[in-house]
Amino acid sequence: MTDIVLGEAILALLSEGDPITPYSLMEKLQLMAVSEKMAFRKQACTNAVVEVQSSLMAQSSEYSSFQTGSDYPPSSKMIH
C-alpha cells in the first residue's frame, strides 16, 4: 500500500505540473495523510514519508562522504 500511495502522490504532482522532488513528494504525502479517511491509507502515507526521508538521508550521507574525500586517497598521495 505504501508504494501505491507513493505512486498516487507522484501522479498528483505530475498532473498539477509541480516538480517531483523529495520535498514536494513528502509535502504531497503529508497532505494526503491529513485528508485521508481510511486508517490503513493514512498509515501508508506516513510510511511513504518515512521512506522518502530515509532515502534522502542515505543520499545525503553518501554525498557528504564523497565530499570529504573518503572514497579517494588523501591529496598528498595523489599524483598531480
Task: Walk me through what this model shows.
With 80 residues, the protein is mainly alpha-helical. It has a single domain (1-59), classed as Up-down Bundle (Single alpha-helices involved in coiled-coils or other helix-helix interfaces). It has three helices and no strands. It has helices spanning 2-16, 22-35, 39-67. It is globular and about 40 Å long. Residues 60-70 have a biased composition (Polar residues). Residues 60-80 are annotated as: Disordered.
Query: How many structurally independent domains?
Result: 1
Helix content: over 70%
Termini distance? Answer: 52 Å
Indicate the structural class: mainly alpha
Number of DSSP strands?
A: 0
* Global mean pLDDT: 86
How many whole angstroms does the radius of gyration measure?
18 Å
Shape: globular
Low-confidence stretches: none
Task: Give the CATH class.
Answer: Mainly Alpha
How many helices does DSSP assign?
3
| Oligomeric grouping of the chains | single chain
Secondary-structure arrangement, i.e. CATH architecture: Up-down Bundle
- Approximately what portion of the residues adopt beta-strand conformation? under 5%
Largest sheet: none
CATH topology: Single alpha-helices involved in coiled-coils or other helix-helix interfaces
Helix and strand run? HHH
Biased composition (Polar residues): 60-70
Region (Disordered): 60-80
